[in-house]
Every structure is written in structure tokens, then in C-alpha cells.
């Protein structure tokens, strides 16, 4: 088992930092290997079952959070607002589509970033690119941009405290459905919030009705909430693998759900090999050049037993491409009898950079890719099983459009992401209402 877990070391691992002190990397890995797991095997198994249900059309995955979490933003308020935003979106989807929603944060470990370029140049000065807080600092100085292995250990501890607060919120009464109005408080007033308020009012009435009838709804007091990140940095992921004492099987205990990015999904690469040996549910991002054959080879390697819930394909094609690129993949995979969970990431195929240098996305393009995803599944007869979005509970101005109609000039007012632009609270709710309509149609 351990031998196969380490087989990835002889393969090419893309997008890894260049550490200058190998001794410090070994020390950090040994430290991580001695820490308690962040998640438990039983929770991971339960999530796999939930995802299996979604792949049969009996649930829907809502996965979202920052593009790049930062150590500085792991504060109580920011974590709470992201959790609240996801809970609100989940309510909109659950109520709108009468469908159980599986809530998975891009949280508690989403710290490592693949980059298009190894370097960044500003005013004639070239330094290593920022690769996420778990690797180096964002400040544009040689010292900050140096890959620092002690950040691996810090990343673990920040993940632990983030996850601790998430567990407290979601198990300790905060996620009680009777708090459905409370989750909306503190966010700036806007049309999406008003629409949410009226839906929350309907839920309140339904709960009072259940109370009056004497229905026991203890189940509504807590909610399952899982965490996920891109398993990019193998010096972080490998030391966090633990062998489950119940079964003797390996779990990557850095998160419940781990995904492989578009840039590191080579079938012969280190990431696919490594993740093929852990029991966690695994996602793979699929960009617009993916063929049905690529998808099948990933299935054969990552899910040879065709175990329901094991494999999720997260397609990120771009609004202009999804309607052509996705159907042949869906058809090819179905023809082979495989049934992965199909999820849309309507963000990463729709990036643009403004003349003033802001990385952004148009809300309309995000919506269009979402609609294209539902259309593609409708045309082939496969199941649209979830959404994967970059979002925050904060009132940022990073994506263009939405009902506030954020324009290019407004982007600079509250652009806080260190990597990709996120939907703000209002845009996230707007998106959820739209997806609920599509889901209702898909399940009608
Ligand atoms: O989050 C995804 C990637 O890290 C990001 O899109 C890469 O962006 P870049 O082109 O600025 O490197
Ligand atoms: C890097 C990301 O996506 P992709 O691998 O799809 O480009 C991401 O999800 O932030
Ligand atoms: Mn991103």
C-alpha cells in the first residue's frame, strides 16, 4: 500500500514549487505526517455515498468558495460569511428544486495555486509567481516570493482552525433551518436578498406548520458540510495520508473531497497516480480540449471498479464552447457504461483580463455556461449533478455584471482576490435562484 502511495514520485509532477532547502521540506513533511488527520475516513465514506446519490439524480452538489484561500482571511467573520452564503444557496436550491443538496466548501485547504506562468514581471522586475499562501507570499519582493516550506505546516494549522469553526457553525445550531432569516442578516440589502427573504418566509411557515402538526424535525438542526480543495501540492497531500484502522485503506485526510486541476490531470502524471491510491471521492477538472477517450482513461485509472460517488468530472469549457465540447464526452462516457457525477464549473473557462489589468469574468458568461451545461445533459439524457463556483460572502467587485451591474470601472473598488475573481454574495444568490429554476425543469 505505502509503496503504491509513493509510486507518483517517479512521475512528472507539474505545477510544484521550487523549494531551495530540501532539508526544510523533509522537516515540514515529517511534521505534517505526525499531525492528527483533519477529516475522518467515515465522513469521507459518507460523502462518497452522497455523491453517488447525486450521480443517480437523487441529490445535487453545491461546491464553492475562494479561488485561493489566504491565511490572513481565515477570520471568524469571513469564514462565517462564506458558510452562510453556501447555506443560503443550498436553501434556495433545496427548496426550489426539492432536491437534497450536498454542501462542499472550497475551504480549509484551498491554498495552493497552479499558474499559467512560473514568473511574474512588474515594471521590469521578474520574480517567481505567487503560488498560494501555502507556498509563498503575495507581496512582490524576492523574499516574499521565495517558496517557504514552513508554510506547509502553517497551511495545515490554518485549515484545522477553519474546519473547526465550520464544524462548530454547522453542528452547533447556526445551521438550524430556523435560522434561515438570520443567515441573511449583515449582508448589504439588495434584490437577491429580498428574493431570498421571501423564500425564507415560506420556509418559516412550513416549519411552523410542521411544529403545529407535532412533526419531529431534529434533522433540520444540523447540516452536513464537507471541505475540499485542489490536491495540487504533493508535499502537503502525501504526508496527510493515513491508513484507516477499520479497513486498512488509505485516505488523504487533508480534506473530504479532493480534485485534480485542468493543468495537472495528465493520465501519466504524478497527481492522477497519487490520487488513484486514496479512497476519497476525487474530482477532475475537464477543459474544452478534453476528448471522450481522455475521460475514459481517467475513469479507468481513478475509478476502475466504477464505484458510484468515487469520481466527479467538473467540466469548465467556457460559455462559447460547452454546447459543442460537452455532448460528445457525455455520450462517449455513457456508451462505455460509466456513470461519474457530472458537475459544471462555469468560472474557469470564462476568464478575461480588462485593459486595466484586472482578471475578471462576466456574470452573463457564467450563466450562459450554466445553461449550456443543463442543455448538454438534456440533449444526451445524462444527469446534471452539481455546480462548482468561486465565490465569497463578502461584498467584493470582482466579476462583471449581475443585477448590481458591476462595470469595469467599479472592479477596482473592492477587488480582493489574490488569484481568480469570485462571485460576491449577491451574485452567488442570483446564481442559485437561476440554477434552482434549471434544476426544477431538469427534474420535472
Ligand atoms: O485558479 C486557477 C488558476 O490558478 C488560475 O486561473 C491561473 O491563473 P493565471 O493565469 O493568472 O496564472
Ligand atoms: C485552478 C482551478 O481550476 P482549473 O484547474 O479548472 O483551471 C481552480 O479551480 O481554481
Ligand atoms: Mn481559480
Small ligands present:
erythose-4-phosphate, phosphoenolpyruvate, manganese (II) ion
Number of strands: 14
**Can you tell me the overall shape?**
globular
The fraction of residues assigned to DSSP E strands is 5-15%
Q: What is Rg?
A: 21 Å
Q: Number of helical runs?
A: 13
* Head-to-tail CA distance between termini: 46 Å
Structural class: alpha/beta
| SSE topology string | HHHEHEEEHHHEHEEEHEHEHEEEHEH
- The main sheet orders its strands as 1-2-5-8-9-10-11-14
Largest sheet: 8 strands, parallel, barrel
Mean pLDDT, to the nearest integer, reads 96
Oligomer: single chain
Low-confidence stretches: none
Organism: Leucobacter tardus
Pfam families: DAHP_synth_2
GO molecular function: 3-deoxy-7-phosphoheptulonate synthase activity
EC number: 2.5.1.54
Short description:
With 444 residues, the chain is α/β, with parallel strands linked by helices. The protein has helices at residues 2-5, 22-34, 41-55, 76-97, 142-145, 150-171, 191-212, 234-237, 270-275, 292-302, 322-335, 363-380, 425-443, and strands at 60-65, 101-105, 119-122, 125-128, 226-230, 241-243, 250-252, 257-260, 282-286, 311-315, 341-344, 351-353, 359-361, 384-390.
Kindly describe this structure:
It is an enzyme of class 2 (transferase). Mn(2+) binds at residues 67, 348, 390, 420. GO terms for molecular function: 3-deoxy-7-phosphoheptulonate synthase activity. InterPro entries: Aldolase_TIM, DAHP_synth_2. There is one protein chain. 39% of the residues lie in helices and 14% in strands. With 444 residues, the chain is α/β, with parallel strands linked by helices. The strands form four sheets. Strands 1-2-5-8-9-10-11-14 form an eight-stranded parallel beta barrel, surrounded by four helices. The protein has a two-stranded antiparallel ribbon with strand order 3-4. Strands 6-7 form a two-stranded antiparallel sheet. The longest helix is centred in the first third of the chain and has 22 residues, at 76-97. The protein starts with a helix and ends with a helix. Erythose-4-phosphate binds at residues 67, 113-116, 419-420. Erythose-4-phosphate is lined by residues 67, 113-116, 419-420.
Amino acid at each position: 500500500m505505502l509503496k503504491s502511495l509513493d509510486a507518483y514520485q517517479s512521475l512528472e509532477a507539474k505545477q510544484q514549487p521550487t523549494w531551495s532547502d530540501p532539508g526544510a521540506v523533509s522537516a515540514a513533511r515529517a511534521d505534517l505526517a505526525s499531525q492528527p488527520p483533519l477529516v475522518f475516513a467515515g465522513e469521507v465514506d459518507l460523502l462518497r455515498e452522497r455523491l453517488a446519490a447525486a450521480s443517480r439524480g437523487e441529490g445535487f452538489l453545491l461546491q464553492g468558495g475562494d479561488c485561493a484561500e489566504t491565511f490572513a482571511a481565515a477570520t471568524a467573520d469571513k469564514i462565517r460569511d462564506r458558510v452562510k452564503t453556501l447555506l443560503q444557496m443550498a436553501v434556495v436550491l433545496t427548496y426550489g428544486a426539492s432536491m437534497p443538496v450536498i454542501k462542499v466548501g472550497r475551504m480549509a485547504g484551498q491554498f495552493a495555486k497552479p499558474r499559467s506562468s512560473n514568473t511574474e514581471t512588474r515594471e521590469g522586475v521578474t520574480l517567481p509567481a505567487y503560488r498560494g499562501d501555502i507556498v509563498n507570499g503575495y507581496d512582490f519582493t524576492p523574499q516574499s516570493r521565495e517558496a517557504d516550506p514552513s508554510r506547509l505546516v502553517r497551511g495545515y494549522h490554518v485549515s484545522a482552525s477553519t474546519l473547526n469553526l465550520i464544524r462548530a457553525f454547522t453542528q452547533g445550531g447556526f445551521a438550524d433551518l430556523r435560522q434561515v432569516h438570520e443567515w441573511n442578516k449583515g449582508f448589504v440589502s439588495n434584490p437577491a436578498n429580498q428574493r431570498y427573504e421571501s423564500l425564507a418566509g415560506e420556509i418559516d411557515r412550513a416549519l411552523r406548520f410542521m411544529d403545529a402538526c407535532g412533526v419531529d424535525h431534529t434533522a433540520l438542526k444540523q447540516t452536513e458540510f464537507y471541505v475540499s480543495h485542489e490536491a495540487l501540492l504533493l508535499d502537503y497531500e502525501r504526508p496527510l495520508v493515513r491508513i484507516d484502522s477499520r479497513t486498512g485503506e488509505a485516505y488523504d485526510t487533508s480534506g473530504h473531497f479532493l480534485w485534480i486541476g485542468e493543468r495537472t490531470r495528465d493520465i501519466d502524471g504524478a497527481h492522477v497516480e497519487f490520487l488513484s491510491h486514496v479512497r476519497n471521492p476525487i474530482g477532475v477538472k475537464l477543459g474544452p480540449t478534453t476528448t471522450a477517450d481522455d475521460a475514459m482513461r481517467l475513469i479507468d485509472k481513478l475509478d476502475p471498479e466504477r464505484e458510484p460517488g468515487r469520481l466527479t468530472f467538473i467540466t469548465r469549457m467556457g460559455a462559447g464552447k460547452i454546447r459543442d465540447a460537452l455532448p460528445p464526452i457525455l455520450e462517449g462516457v455513457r456508451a462505455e457504461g460509466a456513470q461519474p457525477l457530472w458537475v459544471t464549473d462555469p468560472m474557469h473557462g470564462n476568464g478575461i483580463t480588462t485593459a486595466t489589468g484586472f482578471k475578471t469574468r462576466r456574470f452573463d458568461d457564467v450563466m450562459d455556461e450554466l445553461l449550456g451545461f443543463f442543455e448538454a445533459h438534456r440533449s444526451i439524457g445524462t444527469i446534471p449533478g452539481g455546480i462548482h463556483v468561486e465565490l465569497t460572502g463578502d461584498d467584493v467587485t470582482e466579476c462583471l455584471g449581475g443585477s448590481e451591474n458591476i462595470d469595469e470601472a467599479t472592479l477596482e473598488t473592492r477587488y480582493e482576490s489574490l488569484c481568480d475573481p469570485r462571485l460576491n454574495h449577491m451574485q452567488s444568490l442570483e446564481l442559485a435562484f437561476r440554477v434552482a429554476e434549471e434544476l426544477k425543469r431538469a427534474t420535472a
